[in-house]
Amino acid sequence: MHFERTESTIQHRMLYGSETPDFLESTHEWRRLFAETWGTFLLVVVAAGAGVVGAQSGGAITLGMKVVAPGLMVMAIIYFMGVVSGAHLNPAVTLAFALRGNFPWSRVLGYIMAQIIGGIAAASFLRALFGIQGLLGATIPGPGLSESTSLAMEVLLTAGLVSTILGTASGARNIGSNGALAVGGYISLAGLWAAPISGASMNPVRSFAPDLIRGDMTTTWIYVLGPVLGAIIAVGFEWILKGKPTAAGTLASRGDLK
């Protein structure tokens, strides 16, 4: 299978420390940016859409369904486009890879803009179909909980998510299928226990896009600041755990587009 050949190529490159020459050229940059836009659209339309459809259907979608769906979506996205762009789908992840030294700072703005465009397109799509049902799938602090509590939770959850992403990108055995399972599984697990506290966003775009389109950005800062702080903490932890950035992490963050 193509995936198996690609995974074998990645492992070979990790073993022999070779670079990803196609990434260093700008010829395919538009493909990577399209991948980040499309992938983030799919993530946000599922993550926010679960809340929207849950409200529209009168509760046919349970909390468990709502939080597992984004994890499964991310898993699928990593499988089908991880080799194109690295499947960041999240400004906090792009920032973490750059801080870790796996991803060039010159590409960060392009990736984040692509993610923002994809998220806004997804929220606009949901608004066009369902209006402001379910607050357009917005993430907000749980009833009776303070903003500081939600912020602390987003910091913690994102630190765990980015640790999972960086960790599964750092060795040959973790590239590909294992990485997709670990990341998708973590997103689902985080949502299962923490969604009632903060919404378990862990992604600035996932929260920013619905807030922007519904016209209420009162608590958006929580879901921007929290993931950024969590990503920074995770990068520090990864350095403690594994030291310098690895060639495997570089390949995972940049994809292996041919």
Throw out a few tags for this protein:
258 residues, disordered N terminus, 11 helices, globular, single chain, mainly alpha
| Biggest sheet architecture | none
Q: Count the strands?
A: 0
Contiguous uncertain segments of 5+ residues: 1-8, 10-21
| C-alpha end-to-end distance | 15 Å
**For the residues shown, what is the average pLDDT?**
89
Helix content: over 70%
Structural class: mainly alpha
Overall form: globular
Total number of helices: 11
Portion of residues in beta strands equals: under 5%
| Alpha carbon gyration radius | 18 Å
Element string (H = helix, E = strand): HHHHHHHHHHH
Question: What does this protein look like?
Answer:
With 258 residues, the protein is an all-alpha fold. Helix content is 73%, strand content 0%. It has helices at residues 2-16, 21-24, 29-56, 63-85, 91-100, 108-130, 147-168, 177-198, 204-214, 220-242, 247-254. Helix 3 runs parallel beside helix 6, helix 5 runs antiparallel to helix 6 and helix 5 (91-100) packs across helix 7. The longest helix is centred in the first third of the chain and has 28 residues, at 29-56. It is globular, with a radius of gyration of 18 Å. It starts with a helix and ends with a helix. The model is unreliable at 1-8 and 10-21 (pLDDT under 50).
